[in-house]
Design a protein that fits this description.
By secondary structure, the protein is α+β, with helices and mostly antiparallel strands. Helices cover 25% and strands 28% of the residues.
């Protein structure tokens, strides 16, 4: 793709900070219409199950990738989260200083290709997650090519916006 070289990386090497979600379930949290996002084992709605009252002990920082480790039909998926949120303990959150919404979306797309190897007999434990291999474009030094990933996703976003405007009969 685009003359770029690709290389394998372990999740634990891409994300120097991997932390579990803090919430043990919704029973102890009040659901509210305009609260903070509550992330759970779903690949729908960017991982958001509902909105809840913010509990400062459970809130986790955004600008990360939430890897779904357990859950019917969603185990193995991941979502990029820009904003702060509360996550179930069935998720592991990966932080890297290079992340933004474009790079996060690129990486989650690549990471989601792994999901087929997981099922209820073979769960995505924190240990297995850390050892997962992602194949990403690399720069001339063999490091993840963050700029390429960002520019690639920006181009895809712009194409989608342009196509949407075309369907409305608008020109830019």
């Amino acid at each position: 793709m685009g003359g770029v070289i690709w290389k394998h990386f372990l999740i634990r090497d891409l994300f120097p900070i991997l932390v579990p979600g803090k919430s043990k379930g919704l029973n102890h949290i009040e659901k509210v219409e305009n609260g903070i996002s509550y992330l759970g084992a779903t690949n729908q709605n960017n991982g958001v199950l509902c909105f809840v009252t913010a509990n400062k002990d459970l809130v986790q920082k955004g600008n990360c990738i939430a890897f779904i480790r357990n859950g019917e039909g969603s185990m193995g998926y991941s979502v990029y989260k820009a904003e702060d949120f509360i996550a179930t303990s069935d998720m592991t959150l990966g932080y890297n200083e290079n992340l933004n919404k474009y790079i996060g979306t690129f990486i989650t797309t690549v990471a989601d290709r792994i999901r087929g190897k997981y099922n209820f007999g073979y769960k995505r434990s924190a240990t297995r997650l850390a050892k997962e291999v992602l194949t990403l474009p690399v720069d001339e030094n063999g490091n993840p090519y963050w700029e390429y990933m960002e520019n690639y996703m920006r181009r895809i976003e712009n194409e989608q916006i342009f196509n949407y405007f075309k369907t409305l009969g608008l020109t830019l």
